[in-house]
Design a protein that fits this description.
Oligomer: single chain
Largest sheet: none
Helix content: over 70%
Structural class: mainly alpha
Number of strands: 0
Distance between the termini: 42 Å
Number of domains: 1
Strand content: under 5%
Length: 201
């Protein structure tokens, strides 16, 4: 029972986490630039595990009973994503992307961590996926089986964010070209702004 619950959690967690989203795009960008990758990966992992544990502990029902919270997160998340999308367009227009070192504290650890928290906690889909969906799936198991499911989902989160953050360096030869960075930032901008519109709509 323990191993089957763990593997079920691992598969469910991987299926939800690996889906391309704003958080993953942000982690990929930091991995490519090699700016505070460890801090970004750690924030994503800790946030995911915390939300998974809350879901397994029964907080999914509380989220469902308070739709106003998700509504607030929906609009706050949309505003955050739209602002980040505009910034990405501005970087592409000004040619400020790339692998050059950041200056003027624009990419200090505290700002990067705050941005990462924004992508993680202002996205209502994060709560639906981790707290509600994974929390609901864990109820198929009794006792320790639920926590084995949570351990499997948490393992998927750890493996994914470590691979994404530190594996991004494989793409570095491509992104040494400033044009590739420009294309990347335009794509990120389009993605973020589209997500913002979809959240509102």
């Amino acid at each position: 029972m323990f191993s089957s619950a763990y593997l079920a959690g691992l598969g469910a967690g991987a299926g939800l986490i690996i889906a391309i989203g704003a958080q993953n795009a942000f982690v990929l960008r930091q991995g490519l630039r090699r700016h505070h990758v460890g801090a970004v990966v750690l924030v994503c992992i800790l946030a995911d595990i915390s939300l998974i544990l809350l879901g397994v502990a029964g907080m999914g029902l509380a989220v469902q009973l308070h739709p106003g919270l998700l509504q607030w997160l929906r609009y706050a998340g949309a505003a955050f994503l739209a602002a980040y999308g505009v910034l990405a367009l501005w970087r592409a227009w000004r040619g400020e992307s790339g692998l050059q070192p950041a200056g003027n504290g624009m990419h200090s650890r505290s700002r990067i961590v705050l941005a990462c928290l924004g992508f993680t906690l202002l996205n209502p889909h994060v709560y639906l996926d981790t707290v509600v969906l994974l929390g609901s799936l864990s109820t198929h198991y009794d006792g320790d089986g639920r926590w084995a499911f949570a351990a499997g989902a948490s393992t998927a989160s750890v493996l994914w964010f470590v691979s994404l953050g530190y594996g991004a360096r494989v793409l570095l030869p491509v992104f040494r070209n400033p044009v590739a960075w420009c294309v990347f930032d335009v794509a990120v901008a389009a993605f973020m702004i589209t997500l913002a519109v979809l959240l509102v709509a």
